[in-house]
Amino acid sequence: MKAPAKPAKGAAPAAKPKPAAAAPPPKPVQKGPKPISEYNEMEIDERLDQLISMRGRKGQNRHDQLDILKQLSNATKRPSKLVELLGHVIAFNFDMHMNMLTAMPVKVWKEIFDVFKRILDTLVANPDLKVEVVEGTTVVDSVQMTAAEAGDEEDEFIDSGITQMTGNVLSYLERLDDEFYKSLQLLDPHAPEYVTRLKDEVPLVNLMQDTLAYYDSKPEDMDQKDAARVASRIVEHIYYREQGLFNKAMANAVIRKQQLKEAATAAADAAEIAVGLAEKEEE
Keyword annotations for this protein (predicted)? Predict the structure, then answer.
């Protein structure tokens, strides 16, 4: 076996191969903002307070704020917070359409109608839920102290059963009624659009009757005063109707009141059963 040839005298030594360059470390993946649908209850409260503090300021996109409020209302699991958030959805909508010379667009009016109906359904389904009118921005309920405050995103707030709002819920229904009348006044009574708009009166009166039945189920004096306000609005819609239509409307009101009473009783019974089961589990 031949020995390897020696390099000639004066020749440059062979270059050593350079080690391969180390691969650059992977860049950390940047996480985007947390989706609102994944918020825990404390994050919902904090985001709501942030929105309320910016309400009415210049440079704010009201449409974006309204969209965030809708997402927050779909994310919360507390009935009290749901009513509060939906109330702000209505208030923000009214802020965006404050004009004495023009009527609110019908599409927006119907959206507010549906939101108010959702508020009423939530109140009926939770008969022990109380609504308190407070001045200024919303306040995080100090009773709601759970592990969520310590950073446990999986835990939930305990619903104290109190909704804090900056306005009376009934005022939203009255504003809906006012906007309905304004739209009729600004339309030609001989135009097809007038007849089409007039068809919204029946659902509006039905909503008023449901609201009246809700207040009738409450013994508090303030609720009875609100019931009187709703009743006066109903009278304004039906006092000039033919007797047959009036009888039909009143019969419908009686039926709806009975249905609402039965629904409230069923909800109360279900809540009592749930509390009993929870107490047994703790034992």
Answer: Cytoplasm, Initiation factor, Protein biosynthesis
